[in-house]
Model the fold of this input.
Amino acid sequence: MTEISLLDRYAEVAGGDVIEQLRQLARPLKGLRFVHINATRVGGGVAEILQKMVPLMQELGIDTRWEVITGESGFYQCTKHFHNAVQGNQVNIPERYLKVYEETNAHTAEELKGVLDEADLVIVHDPQPAALISHFPSRKGKWVWRCHVDASKPFRPVWKYLAQFVSGYDASIFSISGFAQQLPHPAYIIAPSIDPLHEKNVQLPEEEIRTVRNSFDIDPERPMILQVSRYDRFKDPVGVIRAFQMAKNFIPLLQLVLAGGGATDDPEGEEVFQEVQMVAADDPDIHVLLLPGDAFHTINALQRSADIVLQKSLKEGFGLTVTEAMWKNKPVIGGDTGGIRIQVVNHHTGFLVNTPEGVALRIRYLFHNREMRESIGRKAREFVRENFLITRQLREYLTLICALLHGKEERIELG
Amino acid sequence: MIAIATGKRARNLRELRECLRTIDSGSIYYHFWGGLLRPRFDDPEYHNDFAIWIARSLHNKALAERLAVIDPVAYGSMETVRNELIDIIEESLDETEFPLWAKRDDQFEFIRHQIVVFDTHMIANTPESLLVILPEMSLGSIFYHIVDARRRNENSLDDFQNWLRGFGSTYEPLCRAMREICPYFTALKDLRDELAHAFTTYFHKEDL
Done:
């Protein structure tokens, strides 16, 4: 039996026309050498996307490599500080960490010299490998810096340090326009995406969904609302509980599941988790779950079990948990902030809200309008299919690459 | 089409007007037409990004309505559209004592764009062959041949009409039917359906 190609598998979910367009766009790029560089092959959203993006590009006939920068603990300390500072936290990074950062980049540049010298296009993801570019002053290819985090209000001293490297790139990519910083090159806007074939998003048998629900004592006969997010004040888990309590006065059988993970190494995360447990303690219909970071199957099953998914963030980057829920035909009630605004369209894919009262109102509205709930769910899935699958992100990457390699004009005609 | 941040942002009407004075006309084009390549639901209340932002973030529905009615097709060039936008906003500023401010994370972000054009290897040898090809065309192709063409072609006609004109006056009734289709208020999917319908009606009438 012939093995089905990755592109064919994506054609089944995204549509044959989408894949055909990718093939057409990739045709002029055949024979060119591309390299992605990030900081890890496993764990985190960037690695997840690259695990599929790289083989997809290879199947399209583009010679694509994926390289990783690694270092000692000082390097990771430094880049963790970068991560927080780019997102606005005031962090003073000790000089010795910056030295380790630069040395690690210098060492990696040496290791990858042959590959990067020959590459026609290098996409560097996030700050960890950003300084590599300074070691290739006479590079022949184009270099693009991809920023995956919310850089709308970076801590200026750290941003100033990073900008000395980032400014040297030929282009940068930000997830939404509000995140883009002023740089001396084009700042492209490419929204992130989900992988429909990832364990987190694939269709699950009803039996598996039931098993997960039972393991947390969630009653399958009663309505359930869910928020999946880290225990973080910006995700407003306490506000979610207040909204649930208000809605429950009118929908007595309602259950709430708060599912989050990976907070135990974060002092504030641990504090928020304790606070949430305390607020929820008297109500057996509130399930507060602390899940490991790789509980993809569990999250998938919980999202599929829910009648409505909440993402009541007060501040949000893009909010891929919203995308995941919408892909599973769920209406989403989301905070009116960041990337949630791009995904949640009032009355079409869900509702944007600003207060626990707003959440409670929309919960009641959706539970009293079953048809509306189902229709919103259907539209939400279609919206994701057209806009937030990895195939759309790849199409935009290929478009950007064509644009970069062929000029700066507004309209670029490929021969 | 791919979007590029210009770095220019506005939080109130005055800032919007100032940016409009200097922003590249390609950005104004994007904020009028780019929405067609983004998904639309049923019947959007406003059809350009300026009107949408003013209604949603500045809560000025009267001004949003006045800007929403601007149909760029009727204005010839984006420079004329720019002047019209500025005029209407200035009029509104004259009437407003306290201009409202949008939240910091809800500013109007000026975007420009690049279009990459590539061969789809779909070829129509005769006008009639478009009957089969049109329904199969991607929405990007529809955008390029109908919307982008009007800006690209000196006579401001779409690519189909220009091609049909090469056959003399034979297809004038079909061209007339196409001119009645309004791209500005029509989602690309519907635009494709309406074009296909115009071709089907024309050629089936010919068969009778």
